[in-house]
Design goal:
Two copies of one chain form a homodimer. By secondary structure, chain A is an alpha/beta fold. The first copy, chain A, has 21 helices and 16 strands. In chain A, the strands form three sheets. Chain A has an eight-stranded parallel beta barrel with strand order 7-8-9-10-11-12-13-14. In chain A, strands 2-1-3-5-4-6 form a six-stranded mixed β-sheet. At the A-B interface, helix 1, helix 3 and helix 20 of A face helix 1, helix 3 and helix 20 of B.
Chain lengths: 717, 717
């Protein structure tokens, strides 16, 4: 009997460890385009028996039909046939001018080239679902819109939706180098296999295009803003052209980051002065060469005179001189220039937060019409929280483009869960107060006051060669949310999270609610355990991984965390009021006034704008010091809570993805404690104050935290 | 009617372009472990109704059972249940001592710890299939053996197979750097995500272990032979331990490349002299530290005093002094040292091909018993063809380990199809003539004359983060063939190709035959269009991509292609006979004598050993010059033929993989022509001879070929 019991125990233990032998594991590659079977497949099958398109199908329309078949096959179990006639149960793709007889497409004309309309209708007595648009790309977007509607539980029966993008340019910026490393990339290599291009066109490029088209992203800057001259040489233009060919049917234009000194470095000019005729001629010829290979090339993104990059100021010219010279070369081809406002120089030690405004505000109105100035969401550098950039609303005669960072250089890389939707939304909904009735950042971007000018948004991509694309499952949500906000800057981050979670993880309402709630709290948790109360730029040097509030020995003052927190025995915070750097003066008076007084400054921005004594009384009744420690502790508690909540989702999530997320959350808890402990240890060493009652003593000494080093860190090149 | 016809045409064109909407595309990730459905699933289901194992299942046995279930689910459509009793139709896993009553396992004892026996048998009147072994790892290898048998059409009914590895150490060498780049890697990044280790244990590590275990590979050196000190610090030992934990159940030990100067660089010793007591003590303590984390750690691989790496010669000590000091540190833990014989120094300008022998032959018998000397297959460096290394058979008192290169540094990277099975086989079957009755390289490795000594083979891995693992579908075959040869150095490359193609591409005999034939001819094609007739080391500088026979300006003479071909107005080839470097004297007299005379030297090695006039009369009746050009042309024709033959396979191969291979073959043809044209143009410029009648003029001028540059080439770090 004992033997038998042992043997039975062995069977049981075996059965427990055996995974289903044949299930295809969810590895994240399919992103939000998983198209899992609907509960009621019969009804959906009835409503999607055929796909009807009457014209000659362009590659874009073919992509729309392919996607509908793929999605409907997945969700209903049956791929619809394709027909040119309209039968009952058809999904009808139709462009304005070729709409089904008797179908009313009210408002279609207002939706522009990229908008679409989805409508359940009766046409000649037949029940059909119409995807109507003014152009092929609208049909593709509409196809994705229909699939999303179906996937998120809307059903086709009463579909009546119209959508058009509010910004013209919805662009990803890849900080991808030509050797396939990615600056601040935490998702493996660049997905651009430059070495094998143009010969090898990987299937993943198509899936990249599909994912972006599903969000309406219509442009991609392929290479790092810290650019190299080689990207503009003939072999690389051929590689870029091959990618452009793959992306074109999905409505995605390619752009390149241009290095200012390219012609000089290639020894094809003797200067890079934008006003030198030979330089302008070189760029005109280069643009002509590019457009011969890529007729719909988007244009250039330029980082100039920033962080050591060359630029027109090297020749005592302005940013406008530089941008306009390039714009003139691109204009005959309808190309544009995206000129970054992220500039700072060590020679101007006033307040780094002020420099972009100081340099660009005087240039308002001086840029050519095909130039956009691309402004980061905040004035420092993609911190967990920053106030909106003072340039928004301050350059009414210049089209401004938002630059968000989707890759989480400062929010835990691909390790920490930090859904950026709320960060994007917070910035976009911020009121610049540059108009009497208010003017949000989103409204500045949409530029409704002008109408014919360029509008756009850029997101620094978190896409790489890793099987999850974004380095982790939850980081895919940041790509998703970025794309949705680029389509509609007045969108809702919680709604986007819900869409994403439903398509990506589960249609089970309980699971969706839990996951969305985790996502919505996750970014604030990171703020709290890294940089609470308006602190910023406290990360360790170079790789930006982990805490380094003590760092004070770098080559430039404004690289040091101590420059930003200015903590000493008496207090902490950066005084940006009139008694300090007066960066506040760059904001509209309504904003500046509110933030000039710590009493009317939100806690979240307090130490961004104010240097306050450690015993400053917070609205909570605590001293600043006690509050600071409490915020750090709250962040850690939130990270622990994320981990605990995920545990509860175990029965509702497939095993592999459950496990992969759990591993990351374990690490997040560990690193949250490290951030908290190291920061508290450091600030305590500066303030000399005892830990508030009940606060836990850091696990190691400050010297031990300082000694931690990370050779070969990810994303640091 | 015209409209209707147009519409119909549109439908047709759409239908043509639509891929199946739901098929999971073959992307190569599953390697040869695809387990596609058998034609006769019923019979196989009958024979595999249950998996029986009576004991307590160790992680290794669990892995065996998991794999059997996965494979049988795939091939028969049904995953067998797991039981502890033996029923009819069972697959019985049994270790010696616990074999089913009445089952005769003749010869099992001779199969060692890793061998296995597969046998269809009747046990108590029940038809069963027995996998018998002496240890758990034998059961895992047996499970893979059974699945391979089934997959390649053997069936279970009359199975009677026994197999045991002929070498003890079957090891992969990853030239993977700590920043995830891979030296000479053409398959994306390192699969070791060092940055996220030890916290994140990726699922791919398990699949890596499965694939290797399926071949019997039982060791892996995780990091580049050009090693860094950090790998031996505590944070990295923790990362390595995490990988060791994942690989352990699959019988795979981890090893590390150790940098000679590690303790000195870490400032923990004042010298790296192997005879200094503080150095020996440091390594002893380091070994102890490693073994505390990884009790079954395999040991160190060392590249010392080679290509700028530090080593014991820096202190006027020998390789043996260095290896033995490390060996002493590892011996208490049963660890070993693999000491590379790949050495050459600029200060010894005689003939680079002679240096390893000159340095190591005198050390024969001076190495500790737990040291192996790891010798590349040839005396230069993994060229498309080299004669076997003269050290094989020349160090009878030292265990020698073969080092093959699986990654194709010199055979077209992951772009060209070049099945290396014939290269491995050619070397292994070469007769060193060091015994009166012959002694092949394989016999040297197997070391049957001694018995208790270490034996082994190393392969420089072609594994990376790319979805195909190896950078292309066909490069997987090189990993496969390497593993099979490591198990049996006297194996047959064609048989391995057939196994691989059947499991990987198709069981259709016509497809298999065609694919195997392409594979078998592919390496010779590369030899012909790159380095025919014994030429070698003609590649361009640094990245080793493309032809550079003209290069003569590098820092060391033996880095220059001109050093190796010695072509001038009069002739071509490296005289390694007594009138030249006399490298031939390093071979056994029988070999030396045959290769001393160009008349008895095989064409394939002619210019390796002889400098001959351009008008030398070849056995073909042609002059050497005419023959050389003909060989280049033959190589190009073969590349073109590979492409044409693949075209014919289109109906027999799944669409995605067909297309991905076709793209690479297109490029191979292009690059074969480039190699041929550039080489012919160059040698013509040297010989001053007219092109042979009918030979095609190169497409560009020599200067144009010389001007081609490849910044940011893959695998070059």
């Amino acid at each position: 009997m004992r033997v038998l019991k042992g043997a039975l125990a062995a069977v049981v233990s075996l059965v427990v460890v055996l995974a289903p032998a044949h299930a295809v594991e969810e590895d994240g590659y399919q992103l939000w385009l998983r198209y899992r079977p609907l509960q009621q497949t019969g009804q959906a099958q009835q409503q999607a028996q055929t796909i009807s398109y009457a014209g000659k199908a362009s590659p874009t329309v073919r992509a729309a039909i392919d996607e509908l078949r793929r999605g409907l096959q997945g969700m209903t179990g049956k791929a619809p046939a394709v027909a040119t006639t309209v039968a009952s149960g058809a999904i009808v793709l139709a462009k304005a001018g070729a709409l089904p007889q008797g179908f009313s497409a009210d408002g279609l004309a207002d939706l522009g080239r990229e908008g679409y309309l989805l409508k359940s209708a009766s046409v000649n007595g037949k029940r059909v679902t119409v995807i109507a648009a003014n152009d092929d790309i609208g049909l593709l977007y509409g196809a994705f819109g229909l699939l999303r509607a179906l996937d998120t539980g809307k059903g086709l029966a009463a579909l009546d939706e119209r959508s058009a993008p509010k910004l013209q340019l919805r662009v990803l910026n890849h900080w991808d180098n030509l050797d396939r490393t990615v600056e601040r990339g935490y998702s493996g290599q660049s997905i651009w296999n430059w070495w094998e291009l143009p010969d090898i066109r990987e299937r993943q490029y198509v899936d990249y295009a599909r994912a972006n088209a599903s969000l309406g992203i219509n442009g991609t800057v392929l290479n790092n803003v810290n650019s190299k001259a080689e990207i503009l040489t003939a072999p690389w233009i051929a590689k870029v052209a091959a990618l452009a060919d793959v992306l074109r049917p999905y409505g995605i234009k390619v752009y390149l980051s241009a290095r200012w000194s390219t012609p000089l470095e290639l020894k094809e000019t003797t200067t890079a002065d934008p006003l030198a005729p030979e330089v302008a001629a070189w760029w005109r010829a280069k643009a002509d060469e590019i457009y011969r290979a890529i007729p719909d090339f988007g244009g250039f993104l330029v980082k100039a005179n920033s962080e050591g990059q060359p630029g027109p100021q090297d020749y005592h010219r302005t940013h406008a001189d530089g941008a306009n010279m390039l714009a003139a070369a691109l204009a005959p081809h309808k190309g544009i220039v995206m000129w970054r406002a992220f500039v700072y120089a060590a020679e101007k030690p006033d307040d780094r937060a002020k420099q972009a405004y100081d340099e660009f505000k005087p240039l308002d109105g001086k840029f050519a019409p095909n130039v956009m100035v691309q402004v980061k969401n905040g004035a420092i550098d993609f911190q967990p929280r920053e106030p909106f950039h003072p340039l928004f609303g301050a350059m009414p005669r210049t089209p401004l483009m938002m630059e968000f960072q989707i890759t989480k250089e400062y929010l835990g890389f691909a390790m920490h869960m930090a859904y950026l939707g709320p960060l994007f939304e917070e910035v976009l909904k911020a009121d610049t107060m540059q108009r009497p009735n208010g003017l949000t950042v989103a409204q500045v971007l949409e530029d409704t006051e002008h109408g014919q000018r360029l509008t756009g948004m850029a997101g620094v991509a978190n896409i790489g060669s890793s099987r999850t694309w974004s380095g982790s499952h939850f980081d895919q949500a940041n790509w998703y949310a970025y794309g949705r906000f680029a389509w509609d800057p007045q969108g809702d981050s919680r709604a986007f999270a819900r869409e994403w979670a439903t398509q990506t993880f589960s249609r089970e309402p309980q699971a969706v609610t839990q996951i969305v709630d985790m996502m919505m709290r996750s970014r604030e948790a990171v703020v709290d355990y890294m940089t609470p109360l308006g602190l910023h730029h406290l990360m360790d040097t170079g790789h930006h991984h982990g805490p380094g509030p003590w760092v004070d020995n770098l080559g430039r003052p404004d690289w040091n965390p101590t420059y930003y927190h200015k903590a000493d025995k008496k207090g902490i915070g950066f005084d940006r009021t009139a008694t300090g750097s007066n960066a506040l003066a760059q904001y509209a008076p309504g904003v500046a006034k509110r933030w000039a007084d710590p009493r009317t400054t939100p806690d979240e921005l307090l130490l961004w704008f104010h240097h306050l004594p450690w015993d400053y009384a917070m609205p909570s009744g605590r001293t600043l010091w006690t509050e600071l420690v409490a915020r750090y502790d709250r962040g850690v508690a939130e990270a622990e809570s994320l981990r605990a909540r995920w545990e509860k989702l175990k029965p509702l999530v497939d095993e592999r993805r459950y496990d992969e997320v759990a591993q990351r959350l374990d690490t997040q808890v560990k690193e949250a404690r490290w951030w908290r402990d190291a920061s508290v240890a450091y600030f305590q060493s500066v303030s000399g104050l005892p830990l508030p009652p009940g606060a836990k003593k850091p696990g190691r000494t400050l010297e031990q935290y300082k000694a931690i080093k990370f050779p070969y860190a990810a994303g640091h090149h």
